Amino acid sequence: MKTKLYSLMLACAAIPLFSQVGINTANPTATLDVNGTLKVRDIPAATALPGYQVLAVNQGTTQVFSMDPSVLIGASNTNTTVYAAKKTSSLNLISVGIFPGGFQPVNFIATDRSIGTGTLFTDSDGSYNIPSTGVYAVGYAFRYGTGLQASLLSGAPGIAIARNRGGVATIIDSRTFSGINLALAINLTMSDSSIHSLYSFQAGDKISFGLLTSGIDVGLLGSSVASFYIYKVSN
Predict the structure, then answer these.
(1) Which of 34, 37, 71, 150 has its CA 20 to 30 Å from the CA of residue 203?
(2) What predicted TM-score, i.e. pTM, was given to this entire model?
(3) What distance in Å separates the CA atoms of residue 82 and residue 64, rounded to the nearest whole number?
(4) Does pLDDT of 107 surpass 50?
């Protein structure tokens, strides 16, 4: 009799080990189902990612899952700000009154892009639209004509990057074409220039790539080549 009683007690004691427990719910759907908030007062900090898992909540079922941190790191590598474009034909300059005198944007359009989302660009003023505030890497290259002119260009022409912020346009960087004097009074202009740097922008800024046009012969634009890239590198 004692043996049967002990067996019954052990069986009853084992039942909770295989049941589901609900807090603030009468119908638990997991081993522990908490219908409410969770507070943990003491959480030790991990010193490195290897050997640890992070917890993620399924928004549909609210169930908690463990996740390898490398999955999150991989997902974060998608940079939606990346944009690059190149124009090798039909190159011209846009006349936009808002810019400082002497600067005119290249007539880049969204279909000139080699990578990126077309919605980041505005065709009418040839500008890239900054989607979020942060630090951006920017590169701009321009070859005027064949890149080598038989005479020095007057008026210090060159390339420039402009920013339109709330209707106020500013030249944020520029490079003039360089000239050299050779023997026998031969003058040459090296009209191939580029800019590569980091800039801080605000969401909504419009970035344009163009020329400082003083002394520029527009007849050479048809054989010119222009390209740029831009992407966010930090908040």
Answers:
(1) 71
(2) 0.66
(3) 33
(4) yes
The token pair at 100 is 């400082």
CB atoms within 10 A of CB 193: 21
3-state secondary structure of 187: strand
Record the tokens describing residue 66, joined without a space: 């463990």
pLDDT in tens, 180-200: 666 555 777 678 899 999 999
pLDDT at residue 229 greater than cutoff 60: yes
Last residue of a domain, one of 51, 75, 99: 75
131 and 108 both lie in a single domain: yes
pLDDT at 34: 80
Residue type for 222, please? Answer: G
Q: Distance (Å, rounded) from C-alpha 6 to C-alpha 8? A: 5
Write the burial class of residue 101 (CB in 10 Å: 0-12 exposed, 13-18 middle, 19+ buried): exposed
Quick one: pLDDT at residue 221?
81
Judged by DSSP in three states, 15 sits in helix
Q: Are 62 and 173 contained in the same domain?
A: no
